[in-house]
Amino acid sequence: MMSGYIVLEGGDEFGGKMAEPDRRAVELAGGVDASISIIPTAAAPDHNHRRAGMNGVNWFQHLGATNVKSLPLIDKASANAEEIIAALNQSNLIYLLGGFPHYLGQTLLRSRSWDAMRQAYERGAVLAGSSAGAMVLCQYYFDPQSKKVIEGLGLIPQACVLPHHNVFGKNWATQLTSLLSQAILLGIDEQTGMINDVVAGQKNIWRVYGKGGVTIYRAGSTSVYKTGESFEVSLR
After folding, report:
1. According to the model, what pLDDT value does residue 1 have?
2. What angle do CA 82, 129, 151 make, to 5 degrees?
3. Ramachandran assignment for 12, one of left (phi > 0), alpha (psi -120 to 50 degrees), beta (any other)
4. Which DSSP category does 196 fall into?
5. For the whole model, what pTM was predicted?
6. Which long-range CB contacts under 8 A does 75-83 form with residues at least 24 apart?
7. For 166-202, what is each residue's pLDDT tens digit?
8. Which of 2, 59, 96, 195 has the most beta carbons within 10 angstroms of its beta carbon?
9. pLDDT digits (tens, 9 = 90+) for 53-74
10. What does the alpha-carbon distance between residue 129 and residue 97 come to, in Å, rounded to a whole number?
11. Quick one: DSSP state of residue 59?
């Protein structure tokens, strides 16, 4: 089975500083003519989804992309809407924005949209998420509102993203190391991404892109990887 690529970003997307991982995502999706779908669901609880979605469209157009749209996927009803599913089926790059992780995770969980995203990825599309968007793609995510670990969408097993790691995500590390002792914690700095594009056909090797670094908490040890460096995180 051919599968695409996964892009996990630490946050502060579209501020002009995420160009390196986002350009690489566009390249992996097929270039500037690729069909790009922005998913603003995580910004819906505070009614920020339209502005956030347009920010995403404008950003990727700034990078040269010619076929970018923000999909109005904002609740359970739209997560199962035919027109949303049809758009996802045509997408080469699907980008989940930041915002409220629990709302995003629960909206996509067991939805037709998530099924369509998985199928697009399995056909070779790029599936990307920043901050909350990256968090829910893993098996676990930490909900800062309830202070609980919640089951995510499971694309990356036994993993949990700590977004905005250089700003506040690192403060979650001690608690999550205890709560998820068998998992890998991925501390991703703002303006930084990790993409499993190092070796063709080998999707367990990831490379760091962008301004900061990725801190891996695994089995009681901590490792930091800077831009251009690579490491292994299994998808099996």
Report:
1. 47
2. 85
3. left
4. S
5. 0.97
6. 75/44, 75/107, 76/107, 76/111, 78/113, 79/41, 79/107, 79/108, 79/111, 79/112, 79/113, 79/114, 80/111, 80/112, 80/113
7. 999 999 999 999 999 999 999 999 999 999 998 877 8
8. 96
9. 999 999 999 999 999 999 999 9
10. 6
11. H
Residue (of 105, 96, 165) closest to 139 by Cα position: 105
124-130 mean pLDDT: 97
The closest alpha carbon to 136, from 97, 178, 175, 85, belongs to: 97
Instruction: For residue 121, give the nearest of 165, 160, 79, 156 by alpha carbon.
Output: 156
Strands 93-96 and 36-39: parallel
* Residue 175: its H or E element: helix 173-179
Give the model's pLDDT for residue 13: 84
Q: Is 25 left (phi over 0), alpha (psi -120 to 50) or beta?
A: alpha
User: 49-62 vs 19-29: helix axis angle to the nearest 10?
Assistant: 80
Alpha helices in 5-62 (DSSP H): 19-29, 49-62
Distance of alpha carbon 100 from alpha carbon 113, whole angstroms: 18
**Which residue in 103, 31, 104, 30 sits closest to 63, CA to CA?**
31
- DSSP code of residue 164: S
Q: pLDDT, tens digit, for every residue of 80-109? A: 999 999 999 999 999 999 999 999 999 999
Q: DSSP letter at 148?
A: E
Q: What is the mean pLDDT of the chain?
A: 95
Phi, psi of 210 (to 5 degrees): 110, -160
Place of tokens 């996990």: 8
